[in-house]
Design a protein that fits this description.
CATH architecture of the largest domain in chain A: Orthogonal Bundle
Helix content of chain A: 25-40%
Distance between the termini of chain A: 64 Å
Mean pLDDT of chain C: 87
Number of strands of chain A: 7
Low-confidence stretches of chain A: 321-330
Number of helices of chain A: 10
Radius of gyration of chain A: 27 Å
CATH superfamily of the largest domain in chain A: Cytochrome c-like domain
Radius of gyration of chain C: 32 Å
Oligomer: heterotrimer
Order of helices and strands of chain C: EHHHHEEHHH
Strand order of the largest sheet of chain C: 2-3
Helix content of chain C: 25-40%
Number of helices of chain C: 7
Shape of chain C: elongated
Strand content of chain A: 5-15%
Structural class of chain C: alpha+beta
Number of strands of chain C: 3
Order of helices and strands of chain A: HEEHEHHHEHEHHHEEH
Chains: A alpha+beta, B mainly alpha, C alpha+beta
Distance between the termini of chain C: 101 Å
Number of domains of chain A: 2
Structural class of chain A: alpha+beta
């Protein structure tokens, strides 16, 4: 090891290898990603952010929000199951096959398995297996497919983040397609923001809720979300006691109200935290942009790489069968 | 540049004093700039840490909001202090080990100024809001050309000094320095190109960012630190480095494995990226243990020398923290532990440990060794190095314990992943304050030493000596 | 070389290398970790694919949203494993013994009538198979699959052969109901193989 050039070449070679695999490899595999169709729909995902939300991304970046907030949902596995969705007309044949399922074969003596199977068929979908591998779920579906009874493969996304309600699936590369730069973050001093655009108000770390009028009105919901984000940016401690999030008063203006004039429609409704009489707090365009950006954050479209579970497709309820169209997923 | 580079017989060998004289001005300039950036970073770091305790502190000021002060502090520390001090120490080590005078001292002075200008522009840019969005690479694009040009000047002259060496055999430190000096411009320019000039699409930017950070840690900062350790331990214990073959082994395994680390578990990228990074990070235990084993065998039996010797004291804690950092990186990289620990304060603790515990400590050790040689004057105070040492040690340990213990308890608890990282506690603040006091003591001591040197030899004479250095070295006194 | 009388600070000599050799433990550790690392990458590498985010899988997970054709093709690929012993996994057959399916006029006929019958009850004796430009003669026995395979399986494997993109096929789908009606209509044929002449008398649709 006395020759400098040899060391230089060795170092360069090794560097080139890691560059080739990680940088070039990622470029080959992910560099040409395009928006893809959402499963069961013709919409493409992701859509480029509207202008105001894109400006909001700049504000998010400039103020270093990503140092305390992450923007990725992690997933740790997936389990499968199978459900029977439509027994068709030949119920007897279906019951013949159904009684061989584990949940019926394990019934104690004295219980009439066919009666139990018949009762099970009254409440669709009938769970055949759950929390197993895809191969076993497919195996469970096979005898039913052979007699042309409709079954469906179901699945559940696993992971601590998903269990904690941060999102219905883990984030994938396509979610960040139009982020420039993507800011997945590395610390959660504040909650994860990947799905904050679609998160229910009760699930926020600084809990709040829609007004009664907004519960059924999506336009009002959007307005209330914006109002929440703006109020939270102005004074985080008001909504979340003991929060370590700094306030961003420089994103807002304090304007003098003319005596007797009503507050403008933009003004924040701050209740008891409002500034002194005669002053109203108006969000600047930067604050609005940031709020629009936060409201645009969602990683919940169902994609081929990672799908979101949906309810099984049941036949239209007839007057005889007990309808269970809104049965939630297993 | 003096005698012909390739044959050792012609000119007389240079003495230590002559070598030190040739690199005095540029190395001192780099080190003092680094010291000043250390002060800036310390102040900004204190503000950032205090803002985690009391979020209202300076929140009204747009340029001093937490999200801007924090990256400004980390970039000032990384680019302003760590890298610049590393360059200074590297140049001195290359001179000393190769027994060749430093090439291009005047150019290096200019390079140091350019680097400072670049970092200043970058840090101000961050405070003004031009954060690039990538951790450890936040400086805006307009700062980058200055840094690149400055680095090119430094790198070229370092290589020229290496090429002009009289002592043809390369010691372990020189391998590590060559590694770091070659690797840095490549990863920096790649990151610059793919993140600023022609930004790649979507999450591939984050992949580039993670690659850059991982390579910066394992193949730039760690080699600078190990170069210092491999020089100081054998020299000051007056023993040969235990095994040459083991150091070759440790070097090449680091080169092969270190570049693949960096992509965190759970990242929104295809699974194989994460798997490769986890495997590589676990494998980097091998070069770490090899280097540490080698140094331990060299030092065995003479650990008592640590007493009253700040150089060896800092080297020892640097190496112990390096062991802890490597083991922790290898173990917590796996998907299982990462599930609970990824977004906790453990990541911050790892960064702190590397930057303050490992690299800074070893650089401080090297500076305690080389500064008196450059100044031709011993360190004036005995107490300040003690303050520096104990402050750094206590502060680092306090920061680590206060960040890691709650993180691990939270991870073992209930809903991992959704749980917020526990806020920084007063213990962490105390640790940060201790490290800050230690750093300020060090900087003050450096300026005191500068004063002693200037009194010893007026600055004007020094500059004349610098410009006449080629002539002086020929005429051996 | 080390002491300059003008320099008051004492200094130790520069470091040098020692004589010890390479101990075995780092090499063994590297080997063990390398081996473990390779196993780790094989098991958790997600096949090094761009669309696999779940480390224990090698393909993207099934979503349950398959069309009827996709399900038939998937099942058909599985059932075809029974056929690949003779007709080969690439559908090229065994020269001199078993005819190819890829490009065969029997597979790509307008309708699946003849193919379904072949699969149900087998065929023996001389048979001509026309590929794109050539006609080849074969003379062998194909076993019947009436009993081992269900209607769905037969529909799946015939669909698989008729619509296999790797072989360039794009013929029509086969539904289990079609197989069922042919099975019932030809129950008399059970146990007796067809000959090529008998098959050619049956309309394609």
């Amino acid at each position: 090891m006395t020759r400098g050039p040899l060391i230089f070449l060795g170092v360069l070679f090794s560097l080139a290898c890691s560059w080739a695999a990680l940088i070039f490899g990622s470029q080959l595999q992910l560099g040409a990603l395009e928006p893809a169709a959402i499963l069961n729909s013709s919409e493409l995902y992701p859509a480029p952010r509207p202008g105001l939300a894109q400006q909001g991304a700049e504000v998010y970046r400039a103020n270093g929000c990503f140092y305390c907030h992450s923007q990725q949902v992690r997933q740790n596995g997936i389990t499968f199951g199978a459900v029977l969705t439509d027994p068709g007309t030949n119920t007897a044949l279906v019951i013949d096959v159904l009684v061989n399922q584990p949940q019926f074969t394990d019934l104690a003596r004295g219980h009439n398995k066919r009666v139990h199977a018949n009762d099970a068929l009254a409440k669709l979908p009938v769970v055949l297996v759950e929390n197993t591998s895809a191969a076993l779920a497919n195996q469970a579906m096979k005898p039913f497919t052979d007699i042309e009874v409709k079954t469906e493969l179901t699945f559940k996304n696993l992971g601590a983040d998903i269990a904690a309600g941060l999102g219905p699936r883990g984030s994938v590369a396509r979610d960040y397609l139009f982020d420039n730069p993507p800011m997945p973050g590395s610390l959660r001093l504040g909650p994860d923001l990947a799905n904050v655009g679609s998160r229910a108000p009760e699930k926020f770390t600084a809990m709040w809720s829609f007004t009664a009028a907004a519960r059924t009105n999506e336009v009002l919901q959007a307005a209330e979300r914006e109002r929440f984000h703006l109020a939270h940016l102005y004074n985080p401690a008001a909504g979340a006691k003991g929060s370590t999030m700094p306030a961003y008063p420089f994103l807002f203006e304090k304007r003098q109200l003319k005596p007797g004039a009503k507050p403008s429609s933009d003004a924040l409704l701050l209740g008891k935290d409002a500034p002194a009489d005669g002053l109203e707090v108006i969000p600047t365009s930067q604050a609005r942009a940031l709020a629009a950006y936060l409201m645009s954050l969602r990683h919940d479209a169902s994609l081929v790489e990672r799908a979101v579970p949906r309810p099984p497709r049941l036949p239209a309820p007839s007057t005889n069968a007990a309808p269970s169209a809104a049965v939630p997923k297993q | 540049m003096t005698a012909p580079a390739d044959n050792t017989s012609a000119a007389p060998a240079l003495t230590n004093a002559e070598l030190d004289a040739s690199c005095r001005c540029p190395v001192a300039c780099l080190l003092f700039s680094a010291a000043l950036w250390l002060v800036v970073a310390t102040v900004l770091g204190l503000i950032a840490a205090w803002q985690l305790q009391s979020p209202g502190f300076l929140a009204g000021c747009e340029w001093l909001t937490h999200g801007r002060v924090k990256p400004a502090a980390s970039n000032a520390l990384l680019y302003g202090f760590l890298l610049q001090a590393s360059f200074g120490v590297a140049l001195w080590l290359l001179c000393r080990l190769g027994r060749a005078a430093l090439s291009g001292p005047l150019t290096l002075l200019i390079a140091s100024k350019l680097w400072n200008l670049g970092v200043a522009l970058g840090v101000c840019g961050i405070l003004l809001g031009d954060n690039s969005g990538h951790p450890w690479f936040e400086m805006p694009r307009y700062a980058a050309p200055l840094l690149l040009v400055a680095y090119l000047l430094i790198g070229v002259h370092a290589l020229l000094t290496l090429h002009a060496r009289r002592e043809r055999g390369l010691f372990a430190s020189q391998w590590y320095l060559l590694l770091a000096l070659v690797w840095f411009p490549w990863i920096y320019s790649t990151a610059l190109w793919l993140l600023h000039v022609h930004p790649v699409r979507g999450i591939t930017q984050s992949v580039v960012g993670w690659w850059f950070t991982g390579n910066l840690q394992f193949l730039v900062l760690v080699p600078f630190a190990l170069a210092c350790a491999h020089y100081l331990v054998p020299k000051l214990t007056e023993r040969p480095l235990h095994s040459r073959d083991l150091s070759v082994f440790g070097f090449w395994t680091l080169v092969l494995l270190g570049g693949w680390c960096g992509i965190p578990a759970g990242a929104p990228v295809p699974a194989w990226f994460i798997t490769v990074s986890i495997a590589a990070t676990a494998l980097t235990l091998v070069p770490a243990l090899a280097a540490l084993g080698n140094l331990f065998m060299t030092w065995k039996g003479r650990f008592g020398l640590v007493r009253n010797n700040p150089v060896l004291a800092f080297t020892l804690i640097g190496l112990v923290f390096f062991l802890g950092w490597s083991v922790r990186a290898a173990l917590t990289g796996f998907r299982g532990p990462a599930e609970g620990l990824r977004f906790s304060n453990l990541g911050a603790a790892q960064e702190q440990l590397l930057i303050i515990g490992v690299v800074s400590s070893l650089l401080f050790a090297a500076i305690y060794e080389l500064a008196p040689r450059l100044a031709s004057h011993a360190w004036p105070c005995v107490g300040l190095p003690r303050v520096h040492f104990w402050g750094t040690l206590a502060g680092t340990v306090l920061i680590q314990l206060s960040l890691v213990v709650p993180a691990m308890q939270a991870a073992k608890g209930s809903a991992v992943g959704g749980v917020l990282a526990l806020p920084v506690s007063m213990a962490t603040m105390a640790g940060v304050a201790l490290v800050a006091v230690a750093n300020l003591a060090f900087v003050a001591h450096c300026f005191w030493l500068l004063g002693c040197h200037l009194r010893l030899r007026k600055c004007k004479e020094g500059l004349v000596a610098l410009l006449n250095a080629p002539a002086d070295a020929e005429v051996a006194s | 070389m080390n002491e300059n009388p003008a320099n008051p600070l004492p200094e130790l000599p520069e470091p040098t290398f020692g004589k010890a050799g390479l101990p075995m433990w780092p090499v063994l550790l590297l080997a063990a970790l390398f081996f473990g690392g390779q196993l780790y990458m094989e098991s958790f590498g997600g096949g090094f694919r761009a669309d696999v985010y779940n480390e224990i899988l090698n393909t993207p997970p099934p979503t349950g949203d398959l069309s009827e054709e996709d399900r038939l093709m998937l099942r058909g690929a599985e059932v075809y494993k029974n056929c690949s012993a003779c007709h080969q996994p690439n559908g090229m057959g065994t020269p001199g013994q078993f005819p190819p399916l890829a490009g065969s006029d029997w597979a790509l006929a307008e309708g699946p009538n003849r193919m379904i019958r072949i699969v149900l009850d087998g065929v023996q004796g001389p048979i001509k198979v026309k590929l794109k430009d050539t006609v080849t003669e074969w003379n062998n026995t194909m076993v019947p699959w009436r009993d081992p395979l269900t209607d769905y399986d037969i529909a799946a494997v015939v669909t698989f052969v008729r619509r296999n993109k790797d072989w360039g096929h794009n013929a029509s789908l086969v539904k289990p109901a079609q197989v069922k009606s042919i099975r019932e209509a030809t129950s008399a044929q059970a146990g007796r193989n067809y000959t090529a002449d008998e098959l050619l008398k049956i309309p394609e649709q």
